[in-house]
Here is the input.
Amino acid sequence: MTPGIFDTMTFEVLTLFPDIINSYLSESIMKRAIERGAVRVDVYNIRDFTTDKHRQVDDSPYGGGAGMVLKPEPVYNALDYLDRDGLERFKVLLTPDGRVFNQSLAEEYAGDRRRILFIAGRYEGFDERIRAVSDEELSIGDYVLTGGELPALVIIDAVTRLLPGVLGDSRSAEEESFTTGLLDYPQYTRPAEFRGMRVPDVLLGGNHELIRRWRRKEALRHTLQRRPELLQRVNLSEEDNELIREIKEEEE
Ligand code: 9D3
Here is the structure.
C-alpha cells in the first residue's frame, strides 16, 4: 500500500455472508480505494459469535408465524468484541423500515469520516432487541431484498466514491456538486456519427462556453422531462431560468 496523504475511513460489516461483501470489494474502484488507503472495510461473520454447539444464528418467532428471526446474542457478542478497542463507531442497522438512504446522507458520511459499522440481517427480520444497539436504521429503498448485504455495499460504494483520492480526477466530484440536484447531461464519445446518429455539433466545436451552456440546458431539459420534482430543490440561476424559457418555447 502506498503511503496516503488522506486519512482512512473505516467501515465494518456484521453479516452472515462475508463472501458477498468481500467479493464486491475485491474488484474495480472499491479494490483500488482500499489499496490506496482511502477506505478500509472489516467484515465479521455473525456466526463466529455464537456460543452454542450448533452455531445457531436464527430461530422461529415467538407467537408463531412463518420464517426465521435473527437472534440477538451473536449480534451483541460481536459488538462487545468490537467495542473492546475503545474506538467510537457509528452503528447502522440495515432494515427495510429504516430511513431511506440518499446522496445527501452519503455526503454527510463521507464528510464526517467516522468509523461506521453496518449490521446486515437476513431471514424475515431480526429480534427487536437488536434495534437498541444502533444509532441509525437505514433502508436503500422501497423494495424487498433477501438481506442487508447489498444495502451495506450500496452505502459503502456511494460514500467511498466521494472520499478524496478515490475518483481519478477531482473534476468529476466538483462538476457533480455544480450540477447537484439535476439529472446528467448527455455524453458522447467517438465516432462522431454512428448508424446515422450524429454527435451534436456544439460538442465537436471546442467552444467551451457554448459547450457549458448546452450541457446545462440539456441537464435542465432532462430533469424537466423525467424528474420535474427535483427542480424544486435546485437553486436556479438567471441563466437557468433563461434556458428553461428556451426549452419550453422549443417544446411548444
Ligand atoms: C418488508 C419485509 N419484511 C416483512 C415481514 C420481512 C423482511 C424481508 C426481507 C425483512 C428483511 C428482509 C431483508 N432486507 C433487508 O434486510 C434490507 C433491505 C431491503 O429489503 N430493502 C431495502 N433496504 C434494505 S436494508 C436491509
In short: Residues 94-96, 121, 124-125, 139-141, 143-148, 151 surround 9D3 (CB under 6 Å). The chain has two domains: 5-160, 177-251.
